[in-house]
Amino acid sequence: MDLASLPQIILAIAEKRSLSKVMESIVGEVARQPNVALARVWLCESSTSCPVCTGKHGGEEVALHLHASAGSPREVDEDWSLLNGKFHQIPLSSDLEIAQVARSGNGLRVGAPNGDALMKWDMEWVGREALQGLCVRPLISKGEVLGVLGVFRRNPADDVCWKWLGVLADTAAVAISNARANEQADSLRRELERERDYLREEVIEVGAFGEILGKSPALERVLREVELVASTDANVLILGESGSGKELIARAIHPAEYKSQEAPGACELRLYSQRAL
Asked: Is residue 199 part of a domain?
């Protein structure tokens, strides 16, 4: 893995806005590196938050959920981009390397032969794919472990590879955090737009009288009288205590101009529609 290639890869990841596109870019870039068999990203979340699980594999308990996968299998009929396989959801209490890294926040690399390190996954699969190493880097943003990046290799990782993955993992964590923030902002914007549209419909439904909103029996009686008189040339005198909404009634009767006059010997406003003056 060439450290000189990292800036361009980092830029390609940072340009993505959606969470799914960010993670697809991460595993895609890693999978293209020499001797990498499979690259995967798991995120720490509950089943109810996981788009693959949709509540089918548990409830609110946090576990590792597979969100992106890319690689080059030796078997032509295998598809390593699938997310719903055996290792989609892994409990944080598992003895698998990715769970250890998610718990501790410390990276881990193992090479075969090394006891049964890789055999924990699937002995037949490891042998068939000639896997010789596994690197797991935590995805940490603002002190929180968001998930892990797991890279299966066909030879053990050297120090350059390990450093390369460390830099990429740090960048990936920031990109994932930003993508989540963008999606939350977009979700909030859509919610506000739906609320705006709903309120507009409500205004249209009950707002035949412009600024007058309400459903009380008394108001409905007044509005029925407004409807009767608004279509005529009759003189209209509007009486009421200060703050009772006389101006709104005047505008409902005649939405153009109207005049207000102070009644002689009284403190209350008396509003006349323009037609009545």
From this structure: no
Co-location of 52 and 183 in the same domain? yes
Beta-strand relationship, 63-71 and 36-45: antiparallel
Domain extent for 265:
217-276
Tell me, yes or no, whether 21 and 66 share the same domain: yes
Q: Does 193 reside within a domain?
A: no
- What tens digit of pLDDT does each residue of 72-112 get? 998 878 888 988 888 888 999 988 889 999 999 999 988 75
pLDDT tens-digit series, residues 19-53: 889 989 999 999 999 899 999 999 999 888 787 78
| Beta carbons of 18 and 5 less than 8 angstroms apart | no
C-alpha 70/C-alpha 26 separation (Å) is 9
Query: Which of 141, 168, 145 is closest to 36 using CA atoms?
Result: 168
Helix or strand (DSSP H, E) at 138: strand 133-141
Does residue 248 sit within a domain?
Answer: yes
> Tokens 């909404």 identify what position?
245
